[in-house]
Write a structure and sequence with these properties.
By secondary structure, the protein is mostly helical. The chain is built from seven helices and three strands; from the N terminus they run E-H-H-E-E-H-H-H-H-H. The protein has a three-stranded antiparallel β-sheet. Strand 2 and strand 3 form a beta hairpin. The relative contact order is 0.07.
Length: about 150
């Protein structure tokens, strides 16, 4: 079955302008065109487009996605290079996730801090609380926030 830009965009839950942008950036060399130049998406293009969307969400640049597509279209001789691209991006994502986890822990600590202050009617209570009275899960964050890094 053949799909128009609008139909494929709807299947992917993206604006049609996204697919036009991908095409303009050279990310859709596999998409056929009619004699009138209209893009004709095939069922087989769906997986490509999902991977492109995933790569964008993973933070890969258009240039790197274009390189990946070019490598994939060249065949099995580029498997190692493509694997390296994805393992690198996985490492980038894992580092970002760890950073976000730490940020979330800090935000959760501050929620606890202000919930405790609100219940007491003053920030003096959580601020002056002994470490052993702070929930264990927040102790490391609290110490980290109170410690000035040494140069």
């Amino acid at each position: 079955m053949v799909y128009t830009v609008g139909e494929m965009a709807k299947k992917l839950d993206v604006p049609a302008s996204t697919l036009r942008y991908y095409d303009k950036e050279g990310l859709l060399p596999f998409v056929e065109r009619s004699s009138g130049g209209i893009r004709m998406f095939q069922e087989s293009d769906f997986e490509w487009l999902q991977v492109i969307g995933c790569m964008k969400k993973a933070g890969m640049s258009i240039r790197d996605i274009r390189q990946y597509i070019e490598l994939a279209l060249r065949g099995d001789d580029t498997i190692d290079t493509r694997l390296k691209m994805f393992t690198h991006q996985r490492d980038v994502l894992l580092a970002q996730m760890e950073e976000m986890r730490h940020t979330l822990e800090t935000v959760e600590y501050k929620c606890w801090y202000y919930e405790t202050a609100k219940a007491a009617g003053t920030i003096d209570v959580p601020r002056d609380m002994a470490d052993e009275d702070v929930p264990e899960r927040f102790r490391a964050i609290r110490r980290e926030l109170k410690t000035i890094p040494q140069e």
